[in-house]
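Per reviewer request, we include the raw input and output of the structure prediction for the construct analysed in the revised manuscript.
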Amino acid sequence: MEGNLIDLNDKFDKISDKPLLETVSKLENIINEINNDEALVNKIKDIITIMNTFIKDFKKNSEELTKYIENLNIEHKKQINKLQKEKENKIDININNNEIQEKIFSSKSGGINKGKYIGHLIDGKREGRGIIKWDNGDLYNGEWKNDKKEGKGIYCYNNGQRYEGDWYEDKKEGRGIYYWNNGEFQGDRYEGEWRDDNYEGKGIYYYNDGSKYEGDFKKGKREGKGIYYYYTGNYYIGDWKNDKREGKGVYYYSNGDREMGDYLDNNEIGTHVVLKANGKIDSNTY
């Protein structure tokens, strides 16, 4: 496992509510100028309500994720130090040497893969801290309960991918970071909440092209409220469903223009209100 720690200053960006607040203010001013167009006024009011919700939810989520990642950095550093000791002392995993035991385990999936475990055992079951290295090259270093991965741990896959974080009953559950280190997704990274081995809840997904999504996930897909930052400098704030833009949203262009309206299956639909960087108002119909 590589010992690179997460650089919070370089790789984790707190959400800024300044552009959101500026947009809300401009929209409120526009309403005062177009009171005679009830349909447009109602559409803009809907957008203002959505954006105010974003401001509240994402500021809270950003603070929670920042605190979590700071704590995870501390835990990660401890794990790196332990792995270094294991390399130097062969079997030291921060427990008394006279408590360390070894045992060969077969894969619970029913396959022929076997692994050598070094660590705590109670009545023949893994309990406490321990390391297991499977014949296929996978390795887990962390906490165990009732013969299952549970607590804090690092799982290194034989293809170079890695997960660091919380486990419950042999599954990723809680908060954690997953690194893709090869193949199509090489360089991608997910940081946030997990449920039943999927990223689910609040999280941040970093794409290898420089784009980033911050928001809600369900069963490994973007779903709920979220912000997608494109590598081009544009970004979208709005609703997501089944990994696609769906519902109401605001699209920010790098030139300062902002477009607000409805989305379906990742595409714009209906009439969108466009706020130009020069202060003019326009619309697009899809």
